[in-house]
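Q: How would the structure tokens look for this protein?
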Amino acid sequence: MMTLLLAAMAWAADPTIEELLLATDDAGRGDQSVAVIQMHVKTDRYERTMKMQAWAKGTERTLVRILEPAKDAGVTTLKVDD
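A: Here is the predicted structure in token form.
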């Protein structure tokens, strides 16, 4: 699909770098995605690991729910573009 997209762009006027990056991003993203993410933060005085699950529809809607640590589990953030 990516090859087809870039080939179609080659027939048009030379694309800008921004257009190429957006086309590449869109080709790999799909309409919907689900991910389990683990984030580890470490500083000289602090260390924390957080596990989250995220659902996205395009770039307009994203829901992120914290799975771990137990004290934060269930905290959820919703992002909806206008």
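The longest helix spans residues 17-29.

The chain has two domains: 1-30, 31-82.

Upvote if useful.
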